[in-house]
Design a protein that fits this description.
Elements: E1 7-11, H1 20-30, E2 34-39, E3 49-52, H2 60-71, H3 75-80, H4 83-92, E4 99-103, H5 108-118, E5 121-125, H6 138-155, E6 161-164, H7 167-177, E7 182-183, E8 202-209, H8 217-222, E9 230-237, H9 241-251, E10 257-260, H10 268-272, E11 277-280, H11 287-290, H12 295-302, E12 306-309, H13 313-322, E13 325-327, H14 333-341, H15 345-358, H16 364-379
Parallel strand pairs: 1-2, 1-4, 2-3, 4-5, 5-6, 6-7, 8-9, 8-11, 9-10, 11-12, 12-13
Helix pairs in contact: 1-16, 2-6
Amino acid sequence: MQTDKGRILIVAFTDLGRDPRVYRQIQFLQEAYAVTAAGLGDPQIEGVRYIPIPGGRNPFWKRNWDRLLLKAGSFERVYWSSRMVRAAKEVLGDEEFDLILGNDMFTLPLAVQLGGRRNAKVVLDAHEYFPRLYDHLWSFRFFYQKYWDTICRDYLPRLDGMVTVCEGIAEEYQRNYGVECGIITNAPFREDCQPSPIHEPIRMIHHGSTIPSRRLENLIQLMDYLDDRFTLDLIIIQNIKSYYNKLRALSDGNSRITFRDPVPLSQIAITMNQYDIGLYPLPPICFNQHMALPNKIFEFIQARLAVAIWPSPEMARVVREHECGVVADDFTLEAMAAKLNSLSLEDIMRYKQNAHLAATVCCAETNREIFLQTVKQVLS
């Protein structure tokens, strides 16, 4: 811990040991700065001071009352009465820092207030585009869209720096709020591995959580359109058991689909290295899914896999730039199947080799230099 080079607070309303993006922030900064991390779980990184934020989620009655207040325009009252925000203010109220790094809009007003009281610089990692976070849901549009738009208009101009996950989201913040965002992707650290030989049958892999908006049933239904050269393994975290059971039921009777047990985050890329194609047809049902540039794409690349995706613009930008896979012509299973069925073994091997080249730049090490330079500029 280098106390002579600046004191930095990283705050997130997540478990810091289980949030890969925030965990990497802490790793990036702790070598050069005195880092304090405040959140819902200890990152357990040597040399980093941890401050737990108690409080927990608002009770059911409070969430419903807040919805009424939001429709009445009481945005500040809703924010500052949040159980977690109040708890964070209490535990961080007497702390002194040179820079406060907030994670996503839930921490934005808090970080700005703490920074203003101590004349500290404030940087926000916006992660997603919050004014359209769940704009496929009427409840979000009816109760929360104006709330997050107001938070952005009131607080974003008071920041000293801002980053987000991809160019499309950065452009949307610039267009609507006049703020510039740096780009820090969700890429993991570089893995030291080689492309594995092509398998016969061709082995496809998908990993992730049971989030219904991602329409994971598309993965299973896609197999009906593919020829017998392909198999699909699914590494799915059962955070919504009923949805997981639905996926299992859909796959019953298809011997080419296998469900595998989840593996630790640090082992994902190495585990997937024994496959050929990383598959992720993400439907553009909301703005953030349309503009998604998730960790999966970079984990596929670190695993040295060919990548197969629908034409989501940010993912397609990476795949086309590095020529490491196929992009379907439209958001249909038929279009994805046409691309996959047309692949030769030589095509797949070429894409895997290009992913190997891309892995040297599509990694956290590249982001580390960008992130540290952003912080250095703000502090100076």
